[in-house]
């Protein structure tokens, strides 16, 4: 599932490609991927413009010049692809297609995901349960430690809990715990202030590095996109079961914590 770095990567590329270009065509191939009748969905978008693309956790919000919003969640298996001019359309089945002049934005794999048309208030309500953005400039180290002190349970479970913090999923939770040298099963309530401060630093390091590397999911946005997915080669622990740890050489282990798969180094990462 696309996480914060993947969605931020999409946000940047979309912002450079579709802003202020009138929507010239809308095709809905799967009614369940939207929240209003297809004819109404299409008619309301025709001629409007996306003036701003915002990311909130794993969501993208397309702000339209008519005050409406398009709220996108790709969920498991969803991705975006854009063609220009005479470039070939994607080989996979598309659920929604939106044209911006000679550019076509394809929404693919929206079997669980969706693109909902909402008002500003409805969008705010839909996202009201999301936790804070950990990379927000207002999320200081002191505020982060204070928030974590109010939480309980395994570190892995906390990191992927979208009500505790927005945008982190399985991959980056494991990478963050590894970078911080904390066992993912460690109870958050047992972590010292010093350890929580290290966790904060690790969150910033991993998420920023992953975003700059285009995320770990190899799903190019355009035909000539050579950035998206490059972080897959930089992952230290996720999906590396049985391989030697880059720090100590111990074999990486795959296990489960509260029903979620976890990759960890049993030597480097200490339970607290």
Automatic annotation (TrEMBL):
Residues that span the membrane, as ranges: none
PROSITE patterns per UniProt: FPG_CAT (PS51068), ZF_FPG_2 (PS51066)
Sequence ranges assigned to domain Formamidopyrimidine-DNA glycosylase catalytic in this UniProt record: 2-113
Superkingdom of the organism of origin: Bacteria
SUPFAM superfamilies: Glucocorticoid receptor-like (DNA-binding domain), N-terminal domain of MutM-like DNA repair proteins, S13-like H2TH domain
Catalyzed reactions: Hydrolysis of DNA containing ring-opened 7-methylguanine residues, releasing 2,6-diamino-4-hydroxy-5-(N-methyl)formamidopyrimidine; 2'-deoxyribonucleotide-(2'-deoxyribose 5'-phosphate)-2'-deoxyribonucleotide-DNA = a 3'-end 2'-deoxyribonucleotide-(2,3-dehydro-2,3-deoxyribose 5'-phosphate)-DNA + a 5'-end 5'-phospho-2'-deoxyribonucleoside-DNA + H(+)
GO biological processes: base-excision repair
Residue ranges annotated for the FPG-type domain, each copy included: 236-270
Keywords: DNA damage, DNA repair, DNA-binding, Glycosidase, Hydrolase, Lyase, Metal-binding, Multifunctional enzyme, Zinc, Zinc-finger
Enzyme Commission code: 3.2.2.23, 4.2.99.18
Cofactor dependence: Zn(2+)
Molecular-function GO terms, alphabetical: 8-oxo-7,8-dihydroguanine DNA N-glycosylase activity; class I DNA-(apurinic or apyrimidinic site) endonuclease activity; damaged DNA binding; double-stranded DNA binding; zinc ion binding
Family (UniProt): Belongs to the FPG family.
Quaternary assembly: Monomer.
Protein name as it appears in the record: Formamidopyrimidine-DNA glycosylase
Source organism per UniProt: Paenibacillus uliginis N3/975
